[in-house]
Amino acid sequence: MAAEQETVDGRRLRGERRRAQIIEATLAIVRRDGATGVTHRTVAKEAGITTSLTLYYFATLDDLLVAALTSVTDTYTHRIRRLMDTDEDPLDGLAHLIAESAGPGRERALAERELSTLAARRPALRPIARRWRDNVAELARTRSDDEDAIEALVALTDGLCTAILLDDHEADPDHIRALLGKTLFGDAP
Amino acid sequence: MAAEQETVDGRRLRGERRRAQIIEATLAIVRRDGATGVTHRTVAKEAGITTSLTLYYFATLDDLLVAALTSVTDTYTHRIRRLMDTDEDPLDGLAHLIAESAGPGRERALAERELSTLAARRPALRPIARRWRDNVAELARTRSDDEDAIEALVALTDGLCTAILLDDHEADPDHIRALLGKTLFGDAP
DNA sequence: CAATTAGTTGTACTATCGTACAAGTAGTAC
DNA sequence: GTACTACTTGTACGATAGTACAACTAATTG
């Protein structure tokens, strides 16, 4: 009844769409200019609306950043879950995902890094920011129950992304897959 | 002669001292409030001087950030070099350094992360930002010539620091040492 | 239909920022 | 001693930011 009530009210639906539009505009800004580029004015302009709207839906700048981090993290969560739900080698999928940081996924990976770094100074963001690592750990657990190896694999994925983003490090999926395998299994099966 | 000329001019010496003071104040701001807290005014206030002075020595905000990144990277470089110059187990020293990210070294580690992340959008900063990874790789090379293992170890150190900073992850030096050893040698010697 | 709720628009305030610029002080060279 | 150089102080401008607030429009409820 209450749940039905909520979806029926067209205003709320429109509000949700507007909210999503604003979050998308925020992410576009982060990807293009970095987290520091996010202001109510830049987001409003990107979304083609007034700042009053961004303020109506997100009372503070912080709210915008939190929503952006949540959104980008959701994206990664879906990606990794899909890797786990397939018959293919999940480590191979993960290697490809990491390798994307050098190409089509670079902006998104950098946005994730910049936004998640905010979590270090904001304990409230920790649960969101940790989800990437939790997701990778969960994926690793489908192939190993060695907790140390799993922990190392999670750290390795983080570190490889860092190298790619900050160093233009080599991003060959096969090479990355080998490193992941070595770390999780001791050899590289 | 020219070098001698430079150190004799008392004005230049004072300038260098002033410059170092400003960089130190910048780092204090980064550690306390993050890279976004760095403005000419906040730095000037922290150093007890006027913004005209910060501007005299660092024409742009960017110059300040670059100097701060260089400084914090120098600190880490010295630390790691010292680990290599000792008879002790360098991996053990590295593990302790990483573990510091959970305690006394947390602010510095976070500052390094925030500043080095700037390098992703500024190719000119890459050489500076990569030095941490180069240093760790060099340390690893004193113990292994397996380039894949070395690359994995570097990424692992990055990832472990991330987990500590963003997640309040466990930071037991012995545990970290074991992970480092496993990654570099296949076992944990 | 009136009242309430959700969304939208617009104005304006205070605060802070990066930076330009001029004037002054102090140290050095010739 | 003069000219030059390095450093220091102070003022002020234009721009942008976060945010408060009021008024209005549209949708929903009873």
Automatic annotation (TrEMBL), chains A, B:
Record Pfam families:
TetR_C_31
State the UniProt keywords alphabetically: DNA-binding
The UniProt annotation gives the DNA-binding region as: 39-58
Report the GO molecular function annotations.
DNA-binding transcription factor activity; transcription cis-regulatory region binding
Which parts of the sequence belong to the HTH tetR-type domain? 16-76
Cell division listed as a keyword: no
InterPro entries according to UniProt:
Homeodomain-like_sf, HTH-type_TetR-like_transc_reg, HTH_TetR, Tet_transcr_reg_TetR-rel_C_sf, TetR_C_31
Coiled-coil boundaries: none
Q: Which SUPFAM superfamilies match?
A: Homeodomain-like, Tetracyclin repressor-like, C-terminal domain
PANTHER family of this UniProt entry?
Answer: HTH-TYPE TRANSCRIPTIONAL REGULATOR RUTR, TRANSCRIPTIONAL REGULATORY PROTEIN (PROBABLY DEOR-FAMILY)-RELATED
Q: What is this protein called?
A: TetR family transcriptional regulator
* Species the sequence originates in: Stackebrandtia albiflava
Q: What is the lineage of its organism?
A: Bacteria, Bacillati, Actinomycetota, Actinomycetes, Glycomycetales
